[in-house]
Amino acid sequence: MRKIKFIIKNKKGFTLAEILVAMAVFTTSVTSIANIFMFANRTQRKTQAGLESQTDARFAMEVMAQQVRRGNIDYAYYGGAIAANPQTVLAVIDNNNNHIQFRRQAAAGQGIIQISQDNGVTWADITPPEISVSTLAFYISPATDPFALVPAANQQPLVTIALTTTNTTTEGASMQPMFIQTTVSSRQYLR
């Protein structure tokens, strides 16, 4: 029998080792690119959840601030004089003499801000279920109605609203709590 020899005269092909190295480099680069994409996507979702929770908290704060600006503090709700700050309920009388109240209510393991426009009979949620309000405090000054006792007093009622929110979505689970505070005075001048 005769042995058949293959003679490769021009070496234009790849060896098995070269193919394995090329596949390993390609697989590593594709895996790295996929991981970078997933990390960027996860970071974007987390950022979006943070922006949405900030927007929702600012909206709730703005609703309360507008009612204080347009109305007046309902000192009668607090018994004429505010005993101690902070308060858990903010009572306001708007310019149409409607009694409006704000409070934090714990429901389903999270806190929500609610509004009542019928003197506390029915309550509606202001904050969505995606954020949880852990604290809501109202600091009212002065402690007594400045327009009732001393008409010559030059104090304007003001409220400092402080709230702490956290995001309850899976994207926002590791986010830090957000603290928001504002001080608002009433635009009504009753002298």
What does the model show?
The chain is α+β, with helices and mostly antiparallel strands and 191 residues long. It has one domain (32-185). 29% of the residues lie in helices and 28% in strands. The chain contains one helix and eight strands, in the order H-E-E-E-E-E-E-E-E. It has one helix spanning 16-70; strands at residues 72-73, 89-93, 99-107, 110-116, 124-125, 131-141, 158-167, 178-185. Strands 1-2-3-4-5 form a five-stranded antiparallel beta sheet, with helices on one face. Strands 6-7-8 form a three-stranded antiparallel beta sheet, covered by helices on one side. The longest helix has 55 residues, at 16-70. It is rod-shaped. The model has no long low-confidence stretch (mean pLDDT 86).
Short description:
By secondary structure, this protein is α+β, with helices and mostly antiparallel strands. It contains one helix and eight strands.
Strand count, sense and closure of the main sheet? 5 strands, antiparallel
Radius of gyration: 32 Å
Number of strands: 8
Order of helices and strands: HEEEEEEEE
Which percent range fits the helix content? 25-40%
Number of DSSP helices?
A: 1
Number of domains: 1
What's the pLDDT, averaged over the residues?
86
Form type = rod-shaped
Give start-end ranges of low-pLDDT stretches: none
N/C terminus separation = 124 Å
Secondary-structure-based class equals alpha+beta
Give the spatial strand order of the biggest sheet.
1-2-3-4-5
Strand content: 25-35%
